[in-house]
Automatic annotation (TrEMBL):
Main location, first listed in the record: membrane
Transmembrane feature ranges: 12-31, 43-65, 92-113, 142-161, 173-195, 215-241, 253-277, 297-320, 341-364, 379-399, 426-446
UniProt topology in membrane: Multi-pass membrane protein
Pfam families hit by this protein: SNF (PF00209)
Stated family: Belongs to the sodium:neurotransmitter symporter (SNF) (TC 2.A.22) family.
InterPro entries with a match to the protein in the record: Na/ntran_symport (IPR000175), SNS_sf (IPR037272), YocR/YhdH-like (IPR047218)
UniProt KW keywords: Membrane, Symport, Transmembrane, Transmembrane helix, Transport
Organism whose genome encodes this protein: Virgibacillus alimentarius
Name the record gives this protein: Transporter
UniProt subcellular location: Membrane
Amino acid sequence: MKDSREQWSSKIGFILSSAGAAIGLGAIWKFPYVTGMNGGGAFFLIFVLFTIFIGLPMLISEFIIGRAAKKEAVSAYDHLAPDSAWRIIGRLGVAGCFLLLSFYSVVGGWIIIYSGLSLTGNIITDHADYGQLFDTVIGTPWVAMTGVVIFLLINVIVLSFGIKNGIEKASKYLMPLLFIFFLILVIRSLTLDGAMEGVQFFLNLDFSNITGEGVLYALGQSFFALAVGFSCMVTYSSYLSKNESIPSSASSVVTLNIIVSLLAGLAIFPVVFAFGLEPTEGPGLLFVVLPTVFSQMGLGPVFLSLFLLLFLFATLTSSFSQLEIIISAFTANKKYSRKKVAVISGIIVFLASIPATLSFGVLADVSIFGKSVFDATDFLVSNILLPLGCLLIAIFISFRMDKAIVASEFQSGSNINMGWFKAWRFLMRWIIPITIIIVFMSSLGIF
């Protein structure tokens, strides 16, 4: 029986959409921050190695599960392991993406507000206090909530149009623009006096500042940056044609992710070092430090607007995948229209985001285990649910899923040597589960 489900119109559309799902806050904001905290170039090298040997096999796994089942995340595990408890992986993915969006959309809202302020020329002004501006944006309820509403509205509109006319079409425009904007910023950054000090910090392989904790940060960043663990890529690959090579597509996504991380470092560190600032500012690196820097540059407002738009594009393409796994779970039985589910999902996510949005204002004194609502949600998603999802997927594809089906999907669309399949399977069965357990236990402070 012919599959009636919608499919990506092309391999490049799938790759750009998947890359868009992976390239977001992690690659552009978090990567420079954790790199600055952990020694620069040596950390970047370790991150790249982990991304290739751990992130890539995990991404291939999610692609295999999705295309083999030809179903969204929840139904995929039911289809491949009927009447079993493995269906919990798909449900964990939906719940995890819901929680992730509840604080991800808050940051997306900040970027929306900053983009609007930047385009209207209201960020870079004489004697501006950028720290105070940031505190005002995140601490004023109606401002922060407005940003969240606009951010989620864009998501709902795009996803209402489906795969080809929604996610794929948006990604085909947004991802190339992201790379173009990044290249412009990199060129401008490298032409600053003192920029080479930042380049040296970012690319010099000095392992003296690398600690065991830094290695674990690099490991966590590698699979968090590829959007693996919540089965977002299971849903995306369920629309993938059998004629496309999964290892090739996954390798393209990983390559794009590494390139964006490289460009992020080359865009940010030369600017920071050129103006004698610290590369370890965290959230301030984007919202406080960079406005300060750009205010002292020729055409500074223009370049700040470019950077913020770039960051908004990356954040949106990532949020598309998070909302898509929720929407596809409730439209799989064809009882509800995509547009209706998209609108309802957007409203529910907005309501769930309110506590995190207000945790910098009226709920600033509310804490959960010593953390703000925003930070507690981030911790639950990033340090507990995501590594748990990665571990369960690794065990499922290695020990529960039919080996013949796995091998067939691995080879379909290409003439890849079986030696690569054996190497990938060995990593998934033994190396990666053990590594994920180590990261998981470390994130909980067990050792």
